[in-house]
Write a structure and sequence with these properties.
By secondary structure, the protein is an alpha/beta fold. The chain is built from 14 helices and 14 strands. Helices cover about 40% and strands about 20% of the residues. The strands form three sheets. A six-stranded mixed sheet has the order 1-3-2-4-14-5.
Length: about 325
């Protein structure tokens, strides 16, 4: 199922699911609903699990939305949602907001993603980029660069190993600031260089930004010399229209694959999470049953099916849930 289009999975923005036991049998948890919001990257996993859970347990409505990790945590820390999907760990400021509102939670790592630097399949001129290249093309000092070659001087100054760049139009589409995918890209790729150069650790502001990964896919696929970044599942499920650019790290130029993401040789891999409100779980057995299913073998199969990579060992995640 890995090649099933993510567009179909994400269309399950609101699906029904029930509160049966973790083995899939119907239980007597009542009719309390479950609301999940947050990362559009994690949304396909949670939506697929809601669909699976619903097939055996059709009693409880589960809504799954993907406005972005940051927007999801705003809802979660206000007590408006039960589970928050996240493509990065919760920030200190967000944790403080939860604490101030009396929202206690458990953090559960559920998968690994490889942030994929992508272009159109029509663009064969760029095979690999390092962090210095990506900073020159996408960082805070690249404002106004309309051509890849506009970044030549900055790339040379940074010692970027893949400069000079093609004299071709540079059309950038990527996540917006509300997205955990944006935060992760800044942290893993841009932050150290920005700090060394006394610049803000941000991307260039003059690009098409969206919290919707499918919009990003359309933007990148629609320009022959595009550049952007998405979660691995959104790349691999659109590999007929997108081409991944290898990223240079300690192991040289490495393309994102399930193997390189799992073994850490792909330089910009990151964990994916769900956060569960523990008080709401205690009050609503449906939440417990859904998360039990999520962490079962059938639930974790959704990680593979939606295009992400499983953890090598889920014992810590399951222990964290059991010890909540």
């Amino acid at each position: 199922m890995r090649n099933r289009p993510v567009l179909f999975v994400v269309a399950l923005a609101v699906v029904a699911a029930a509160c049966g036991g973790s083995d899939g049998d119907s239980g007597d948890s009542g009719s309390s609903g479950i609301r999940i919001s947050g990362s559009s990257t994690v949304e396909p996993i949670s939506a697929t699990n809601a669909q699976k859970f619903n097939s055996a347990n059709p009693d409880v409505a589960i809504s799954v939305e993907g406005p972005g990790t940051g927007d999801g945590f705003k809802l979660f820390c206000a007590g408006d949602t039960d589970i928050s999907d996240a493509s990065r760990p919760i920030k200190d400021s967000e944790a403080e907001a939860c604490a101030d509102a009396g929202v206690d939670y458990v953090e559960l790592m559920v998968a690994i993603d490889g942030l994929s630097v992508v272009t159109s399949t029509e663009n064969s001129a760029v095979e690999c980029l390092g962090n210095e290249d990506l900073y020159a093309l996408l960082g805070p000092e690249s404002i106004g660069f309309d051509s890849w070659s506009d970044a030549d001087a900055l790339g040379a100054e940074l010692g970027a190993t893949h400069a000079p760049y093609p004299a071709a139009e540079l059309t950038v589409t990527g996540p917006g600031e509300e997205s955990g995918t944006y935060d992760s890209f800044v942290e893993l790729v841009l932050e150290d260089i920005a700090d060394e150069r006394d610049e803000d650790a941000v991307t260039r502001p003059d690009y098409v930004a969206s919290a919707n990964d499918n919009v990003i896919v359309e933007g990148i696929a629609g320009s022959p010399t595009s550049l952007g970044w998405v979660g691995y599942a959104f790349y691999i499920n659109n590999a007929d229209r997108l081409r991944a650019i290898a990223v240079e790290g300690d192991a040289g130029c490495v393309a994102p694959t399930p193997e390189t993401i799992a073994d850490g040789s792909y330089p910009i891999a990151r964990p994916l999470y769900i956060y569960v409100n523990t008080a709401k779980a205690a009050a609503n057995p449906a939440i417990v049953d859904y998360v039990d299913f999520y962490l079962s073998d059938d639930g974790l199969a959704s990680v593979d099916e939606t295009g992400y990579v499983r953890l090598a060992d889920y014992s810590s995640t399951r222990s964290a849930w059991a010890g909540r």
